[in-house]
Amino acid sequence: MDLRDLWAESLAGMLARPVRSALTTLGTVLGITTLVVTLGIAATAGNQIVGRFDELLATSITVEVPRGGHTPLVTWEAAKELRRLRGVTSATALAQSDTSSNLVVTANNLLDPTRVTGQTLAVVAATPDLPETTRGQMVAGRFYDAGHVARRDRVVVLGEQAAEMLGITSLEHSPAVFVKDRAYTVIGVIGGLRREQILASAVLVPPALGPDFGLKDVTRVLVATQLGAAELIARQAPLALSPDRSGELQVIAPPSPKRARDGAQDDVNGLFLVLGLVSLVVGAVGIANVTLVTVMERVAEIGLRRALGAARRHIAAQFLLESSLIGLTGGVIGASLGMVAVVAVAAVRQWTPVLDVRLALAAPLAGALVGLLAGLYPALRAARMEPVDALR
């Protein structure tokens, strides 16, 4: 059989029942569309995950400072020196102890037996760079600055949750909180902490007031870096903070962004790829079922062709080509609908759509392959028919 004749016969067989062919193609369309959508959204979502990881985690370093000895390992001024390192955007020194983590803080010094007036909160001494390093926002008021530290002003900044627990909703009249029966003016409330969220329920005091709560020495240094500089700064920070005893400092650095990117991408892709393949298998079963029904309906035609000299391979090739054409058509339509859906979802979520050109080109071929495999059994069954039995 000439290849052109084979193509014409297969196309005629597919178009002989257009409604059935369209419904059969619909299974492949749904499978390919689901595959393209899931892989496209997986790549887009993975890109967002990586972006958020790079934005925060990959630029955050923590240096733990152990206690002990008469001379502090890290001074309060040492954190400022970190800014000289290329790639450091901000650095904050903190001091916190077990004792200062459980202090009774009240919004007034009146004893009211009818209600709870005190809350057990953590008191943390921190340098003025804390909002920038933790990427927090001032909900009300302002954060203390170098002037407050130099003058030893008795001021504090409350975390958003701490202010809510103490019932402080406005700073208009300069409210005060009492810690160890001493009053401290609240000048600000900080919230939206993207790093060190535990500070949202803490009372932040300038380093100059730290000794009032047993917070004399630095216990931790938070460092924010530019993207890509974390690994280098993690090696340089201990030397900059404590040149003579840098080995005693413990640096907590983020994992490699490339490893995290690849891991997140692989996990998301693996999950959605399984879902897409399941949908594609469902479409293949539909093609196989309809092709088999078509073979049974065209037994007389098969018998006549065999009687006129058609070989088994000609019959098999005709049905394989029909099922492949159905799969190819479904793959083209499904790939188009899938790409449109990915772009639409990304636009709604305000994401940057990520579409692989190879996926768009491979989807129609995948549809044709699915159609070919789905039509394999019906085509072999048609080829095995004997002309006499088929005609009878």
From TrEMBL:
<feature type="transmembrane region" description="Helical">
    <location>
        <begin position="316"/>
        <end position="347"/>
    </location>
</feature>
<comment type="similarity">
    <text>Belongs to the ABC-4 integral membrane protein family.</text>
</comment>
<feature type="transmembrane region" description="Helical">
    <location>
        <begin position="271"/>
        <end position="295"/>
    </location>
</feature>
<keyword id="KW-0812">Transmembrane</keyword>
<dbReference type="Pfam" id="PF02687">
    <property type="entry name" value="FtsX"/>
</dbReference>
<feature type="transmembrane region" description="Helical">
    <location>
        <begin position="359"/>
        <end position="380"/>
    </location>
</feature>
<dbReference type="InterPro" id="IPR003838">
    <property type="entry name" value="ABC3_permease_C"/>
</dbReference>
<feature type="domain" description="MacB-like periplasmic core">
    <location>
        <begin position="21"/>
        <end position="206"/>
    </location>
</feature>
<keyword id="KW-1133">Transmembrane helix</keyword>
<protein>
    <submittedName>
        <fullName>ABC transporter permease</fullName>
    </submittedName>
</protein>
<keyword id="KW-0472">Membrane</keyword>
<feature type="transmembrane region" description="Helical">
    <location>
        <begin position="21"/>
        <end position="43"/>
    </location>
</feature>
<keyword id="KW-1003">Cell membrane</keyword>
<dbReference type="InterPro" id="IPR050250">
    <property type="entry name" value="Macrolide_Exporter_MacB"/>
</dbReference>
<dbReference type="InterPro" id="IPR025857">
    <property type="entry name" value="MacB_PCD"/>
</dbReference>
<dbReference type="Pfam" id="PF12704">
    <property type="entry name" value="MacB_PCD"/>
</dbReference>
<feature type="domain" description="ABC3 transporter permease C-terminal">
    <location>
        <begin position="274"/>
        <end position="387"/>
    </location>
</feature>
